[in-house]
């Protein structure tokens, strides 16, 4: 009997003093904190909060100290008592310190990098928003109002063809766009409203579908603001900006509302003034309902119009016909607008189930005038073109996240379904004169494009390992009504399956090793897809793999590294500027990404990111297989100061190396190195700021292309670099007031 009683007493002792405890972590506004770090000091064992803010700590004994921390919040310590069945932790915000950062066992732990950068290097303009993604470069080449040209991982992404961009679950990219597939104009997003930037590189994320080949960027706007603010900004080149962010309901517990607005005007450094102006208005309302329901509702409107000097040929400058900031045709430019309505609903069922629904509607107008070839095709009137469309977008996505505690580990299950429907009317490409007369319609019709999708996957945590297999299924229906061909209707439907596998190893909270593999895709323009017979021509696939790590060797130092590979299937591309179909073969891209984040002292931060990439066409012979404009080498870095005295500022450098502008590298797109700086001082409720772009006034080309063109006085055409000059030294001053 004694031999039975002794083990029984030992079991009771263990059960009494080593138990499992659950809880939630929220901020002072009751928002769940994902990635909160919970450490049992006695055992040096840790756990993390999930999307619900929920966490589980195993083998906790009476008197154990639990340390709860998260980047940007004050660390909290709790001594465990057995009568505490469920912990509700509320963390207070604090000055950011890098030693608070932990490497979470998450599939997309790399997004911690953008969180750090957003805290230490605040966004000063809408152009800087996408630069928060390490290795992503942007360029403007049409007067400020056109969506930026993007570069990432050996891709000239054009305006968004191979990168999925969204705001609060609403897609930004425009499929089958008048100017280019995946066109992503992010200018409707007011920088001061951004709460979070999430990003991932590669096609490894089941909840991200079309256009997610090089990666994705997801922005989340603030749910509530603590105080209102107004700012006025003025600078060189007749630049002026005002911004207002107004709290409408104060600090109520169950609901919040604010309105944000922005107006921007600038002529730019060009001989022919840009007369660029942009107006943004946004309102957002959040309500917490009984039984753990929450809704978010936002409405925004954006409009912009501008003139542009276009891309100028190098020979015109060499011959003294124009200066770098002159124009061959200064009648370029355009106007655009977008109205968004977005609704999000989340429901928590107990502490282990989350249901999230997103529904959105956008109305969009676009009209752009360009002249890339001058007098190549029409020696009398010139080659100006108009691209125009009117679009309605309707869509929704419903997700479920379920969390399980198993004897062998923790399991979470994520699944979702949704659809997106684009109705594009009067999708037009025309040859025009002086933005007033249509000389010839080259393409004119209506597009109806539907994408229905579903995805599912699990995340299984066992010890230090995380396994994440997932599958995504997309259905597309492309429909084009050709108004120039007796209203002929062309249509096609295709399905694509995209499997994913992510394996994560976190031996402790200071390092993560990861392997990621998956298949992604981007759809082609409906005007191509509706004529295609092969699924590869409609939905060309991308196959990728990443091997890398995130490592925190010291409390104030974080390093990240990834070796990666991406293979792209053959595709047929619709060239919106010419109304032609251009065939391209298979391609391969591979490279190395490196990053460093270092806190030198309590108020001084340093960061740097380097990418080295090889991008080649597979089907072309050696020496003629370069992918035009694919970046080979990029480097960004800088210092940021946030001093308790109220002084803050930063110094940022970005470098893009020389790269091939055509297939045999006989034409070179010249690289550049540009330095920007800013200083700010906050005295009580007033903030003074000064921003200097291109601090050393270097001469650089922001965007450039190898283009065949003919000037009016030339007998023959010439193929050479055409470019948009980057801004010279540009000084802006800001005064802001909080209330």
Automatic annotation (TrEMBL):
Signal sequence, renumbered to the chain: 1-18
Membrane topology category: Multi-pass membrane protein
Pfam families, per the entry: CarbopepD_reg_2, Plug, TonB_dep_Rec_b-barrel
UniProt subcellular location: Cell outer membrane
Domain TonB-dependent receptor-like beta-barrel: 329-695
Classification via PANTHER family: FERRICHROME IRON RECEPTOR-RELATED, TONB-DEPENDENT OUTER MEMBRANE RECEPTOR
Domain of life: Bacteria
Protein name: TonB-dependent receptor
Domain TonB-dependent receptor plug: 109-215
Coiled coil: none
Species classification: Bacteria, Pseudomonadati, Bacteroidota, Cytophagia, Cytophagales
Keywords, ordered alphabetically: Cell outer membrane, Ion transport, Iron, Iron transport, Membrane, Receptor, Signal, TonB box, Transmembrane, Transmembrane beta strand, Transport
Family stated for the protein in its record: Belongs to the TonB-dependent receptor family.
